[in-house]
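PT: before anyone asks, these are the final sequences, not the draft ones from last week. 834 residues across everything. Please model them as a single complex and drop the result in this thread when it's through.
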Amino acid sequence: MENFALLLQGFSVALTLPNLLAALAGALLGLIIGAMPGIGSLAGCALLLPLTFKMDPTTAIIMLAAIYYANMYGGSFSAILLNIPGDSPAIMTTLDGYPLTTQGKAGKALFTANTASFIGGSIGIVLLTILGPLVANIGLAFGPAEMVSLLLLALTSIGWLLGENPLKGLVTAGLGILLSMIGMDPTCGQARFSFGIIDLLGGINFIPLVIGLFGFSQVMDMLANKQNFSFLGGTRLTLKESLLDRTELIRIVPTSIRGGILGNFVGVLPGAGATIASFLSYMFNRRVCKNGGNFGKGMIEGVAASEAANNAAAAGAFAPLLSLGIPGSGTAAVLLGGLMMWGLKPGPQLFSESPDFVWGLIASMYVGNIMCIIIAMAVIPFLVHILRVPSSVMAPIITVLCIVGSYSVNNNMFDVGVMLTAGVIAYFLNLYDFSLAPLLLAFVLTPRLEQSFHQAFQISNGNAMIFLTKPISLALLIAMALFVIAPVLFKLRKNNKTPQANE
Amino acid sequence: MKKSFVVLLVCVFLVSLLAGCGSQQKAADKPKEFKPEKNTEFVVPYGPGGGSDLYARMMAEIMQKNKFVTTPMVVVNKPGGAGSVGDVYTFGKKGDSYVISTYVSGQVTSSLMNKTPVTYDKLTPIANLALDEYLLGVMAGEYKTFDDFLKAAKAAPDTITIGGSGKGTEDELCVGLLSKYTGAKFKYVSFNSSAEVMSAMLGGHVKAGIYNPNECDTQIEAGKVATVGAFGTKRLGGVFKNTPTFGELGFKEVVFQQFRGIVGPPNMPPEVVKFWTDAFKKATQTEQWKKDYLAKNGLTDNFLGPEEFKKFLEGENQKYTAILKDIGALK
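LR: through. Structure below.
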């Protein structure tokens, strides 16, 4: 157990006072950044990077890493309380988190999110400790063809999200695909649907879109319905009532473990990231869980599936960064830039050349993860007070957050317009019971699919056999076929029991 | 806080309008010396963390630390449309003395590809500071020399794939040059970032990749990757000292370097251009610039003043147009 000895040595680095303080500061900042819609971990780390130049490199990366995964905790807060995902991996958290809030169980949802984040994060870190370089090498086996099959599998499983209204879900998924097509074609460089507007050349930005779809439409809904977040009926929500009891813990632990392992692996894949991880984990757990059919109606398992996976993915993204010098996510790329500024050479030799640094960082992830959960648990009682703020106060505050959040992504007023438009459209979609989650997921997955598809065909000279001759790709496609056929068989069997009437 | 920032911006804009009027009147009297009296906006038309961002932030820090500029330089990212959004923004600040922007090869190619209104000649050239180098990297052991690679490509046309980041970018221009002048047909596969190119190459999904020196040096040290050719005019140092340039290999037309320059909005007053040119010149002579930026990232020093930079841009624009037409990206 050479790794173990090195890890202990790492702890001796991570547990020094300046490094502990750095992890604490990072965890606090990360929670705040994550909770604010619009500023994701990428922008947060990029903006704070210059602040750390004066620090010792190990201290600096410990702080930035703490920001990165505290972000995943923070992103769930606004997702659960306000139905606004703080960052993209939290989209799946809204599906069950917000219904729980409307049922008066906001505290439980938050505790579930934090517990699952902790479990997922820990799994991610443990796997990184033991299998880091190995996992990173498996990630390399995922080329364009394998990515296509993985994404196809993910896209097909959107079907499970559609719920009682498959047609309406397909409409919003189609809308998401169309929106993602706007802008420069990733392989030919041709402008599509940009109508000569330069701001549209780069496509519609994800963050203003999400803020509009979820946040601004919420404001309109609030004003139209005079809704005032008083689901809690004025009762004090105490820490005691929010704590999870034994049966609830038993419900979420297996889900979190599954989500953690899956999420960690997806996080390692080049360019896949935490959003796809939380999505796949949610879908997978929905299949495997005993009462998975109720996902989307306020199940703590749903919250756990999404949150465990996105934290594990955040840890997973460090595996290729540390062992190969290749960042697994945009945020990891910013960290890579930081490493170079401090004179470290991230690459295949980082483990052997700077063991103090690498193991100090990994050890600090354990410390940081514990710090994150303590801080996150401590703020829950204060957070739930938000729900008792009357809408006359809340609506203007959220509006300001929406506008600032969408402007600050690119410092561009055009994005504010995108946000407002998306908000108005989403308001009407909500009014007529169109689910927005398929739209967003299609929007995230399609560009990636399109690009990988093109790459695969360029590599194979237009031969579609590339998807079948590669074993990983073939296995994923078979899994996809099974996933498509299984529900049909399932439905046939209990066809007579619940005849569902759709218009 | 954001609101006050917007108010501030509006104020800055109004003041700069007034300042513009003022300097025009005074210009009639005598050529005035310019010295910034308030914040200068330093536009980066790409996102935070990228090459241009790093370049701008490093420059801004050097300028401030050495007091080449005594008022703050605020780096503002305006990403989108492969640099076009930032260019349009700078273009809209006509005559403003307090806006400058980074300008690199990719902005010229993206204006060509997308036929945007803001082409290189619409902005005011201030200076070119450095040239970024490109290398052709392969898996170590798979091909020993460029000759091996070329033979493989000629033996099986259209199967040798070279990865690079983006479409119509510097990386694709490099591959276009290779195909045009070596007689082999290489296939360009575009990825989102050079990290993805490296992953794809290490995983065996593409045969080769186009890299900047700092994108592949550690892989070379680890013995996983080898560079078989350099696109620059001279050999690079360090781990690249045994990598021949394509000129040495007998393809003297295969030369490509990405320029990293600075431009201002249209009609920037000459005394302002002079001020910035001088300030940037001083900054490029500092140790910090040479050591922490050029050496660390493997760039070549190449300072050009406004006149030379303008001529240089004309040449680059012609060169890019020709290659883009050859590879069918432009009609």
